[in-house]
Amino acid sequence: MPETTGSRSAQPATRAWSPWRTVVAFGLVSLSADMVYEGMRSVAGPFLGTLGASALTVGMVTGAGEAMALVLRLVTGPLADKSQRHWRLTVVGYAMTAVCVPLLAVAPVLGAAGVAVASTLILLERAGKAVRSPSKSALLARMASATGRGRGFAVHKALDQVGAFAGPLLVAAVAAMTGVLWPGLALLAIPGLVSLLLLVQLRRRVPSIVEPDPEDAEDAEDAEDAEDAEPTAADRPTGRLWSAVLGADLPRDFHLFSLAVALTTAGLMTFGVISFRFVDAGLIPLAAAPVVYAMAMGVEALAALATGDLFDRYGSRVLLVVPIIVAAVPPLVFAPSLGPVLAGVVLWGLTTGIQDSTVKAFVADLVPSRRRATAYGIFAAVQGVGAIAGGVLAGALVTERPGLLTACVVVLQLASFVLLLRLTRRSTGPRT
Questions:
Q1: Which of 10, 112, 249, 417 has most Cβ atoms within 10 angstroms of its Cβ?
Q2: Count of Cβ atoms closer than 10 Å to residue 180 Cβ
Q3: CA 290 to chain CA mean position, Å
Q4: pLDDT digits (tens, 9 = 90+) for 22-68
């Protein structure tokens, strides 16, 4: 059965939190959880290497993990909307991260089985990301409806980035003191426990999202009318399954927006590619690469806050800047001197901050609340396809043909800009 709401009639002694308090509290949950999994991800490769894993094994495990984190959302998103168990799936997903990452600390004492156990735990942690993400985004979209979705997603992302910054630093500090990686991973059990405690408290104070947003009332009536209509091929069990997974019933503008963001993602090279380039060129020493990454994470947090506010003030047209910025990154990061490279990294962080926050606010505007978890799952999967394609493109051209790579990125961003321009012209304007 669907979750029951946390209303005053059901829990008379529990007082609901204000919209901003709930958004900040949810941000603190993500801050704590990000410390855990970003701390792990920052050393996952070297840690597997200390257990005897080959470079091929490391690549397969980490690559499969990222694929699982995206592709499984095609299942967990529709599951959340159909069951209305958004909170339960969110808690389960965060619990998988809080448990699996600290357990990595036992892998070194397992001998030959250490690599297999550690690889399994890393994959389970990424599966937990897929379990919680669509439900978490749907919950956040509801919480932020009263604060302005742009600002709500921005504040959440900024707090999230604090954890992404602190977790790797914590693991690095412990490793520097002990000379090994596993104590730092074990210590991540503390922020993991904090995230779960905060989440349980938040669940008690915030209603569920069984009922649609008021703005979706007409859509809900249309859905009821559709249910009374004569069944079609899409209404048969198999048709319903594929319709839910692929989002066939979602608005066309949502799918166009997903494609536009996938194109920007394909052009936005990963930091791994960028750092490989500037280290290989001798512009920045290997030991300083994490410092440059930390700088980019700080820019990402500030970008989320700024663009989230602009989104609520001026509407979706602020997103038109994304492909323009992405097109400017390659010429800068491929420059022969340090100054332009750092400027390119700043722009990279700026775009990443917008991609991970403000674009999600626009997704919430494009789809009805009852289908948001499904939409976020599909959106992430499409964006993941763009990331994979962009990674292959950058990996093939970054060393020998950087000029051709830059040209390809510009073409991708031009296509994205055209799609975004078409969508934003149909936008209803500033959010209230």
A1: 417
A2: 14
A3: 21
A4: 888 899 999 999 999 888 877 777 788 888 888 677 767 776 777 78
pLDDT tens by residue, 362-407: 888 888 878 888 888 888 888 878 877 877 787 777 677 888 888 9
Structure tokens at 158: 């900024």
336 by Cβ neighbours in 10 Å (0-12 / 13-18 / 19+) ranks as exposed
For tokens 């921005």, the residue is 154
Nearest alpha-carbon partner for 201 in 84, 91, 80, 83: 91
d(CA 141, CA 376): 11
The answer to whether 418 and 322 are in contact (CB under 8 A) is no
> Can you tell me the distance from the alpha carbon of 119 to that of 166, in angstroms, rounded to the nearest whole number?
24
C-beta separation of 355 from 261 below 8 A = yes
Distance from C-alpha of 44 to C-alpha of 47, rounded to nearest angstrom: 5
Which residue in this structure is represented by tokens 């403000």?
358
Return the axis-axis angle of helices 271-280 and 338-355, rounded to nearest 10°.
170
Residue 37 CA to residue 252 CA, distance in Å, equals 34
Residue among 47, 341, 292 at smallest CA distance from 185: 47
| Helix locations, 42-148, DSSP H | 44-50, 55-71, 73-83, 86-103, 114-143
Q: What is the pLDDT of residue 105?
A: 94
In terms of Cβ atoms closer than 10 Å to its own Cβ (0-12, 13-18, 19+), residue 409 is buried
Low-confidence ranges of the chain (pLDDT < 70): 1-16, 55, 59, 63, 207-247, 272-273, 286-290, 398, 426-432
Work out the end-to-end distance of the chain between its first and last CA atoms, rounded to an integer number of angstroms.
34
